[in-house]
Amino acid sequence: MTAALALPAANLALGVAGKVVDGIANALDPAKAKAKKQADDFETMFLEQMTQHMFTNMGAEGPLGENGTGGDVWRSQLTQQYAKQIQKSGGIGVSDQIMREMLSLQAQASKGA
Question: Where is the Flagellar protein FlgJ N-terminal domain (predicted)?
Answer without folding.
Answer: 53-100
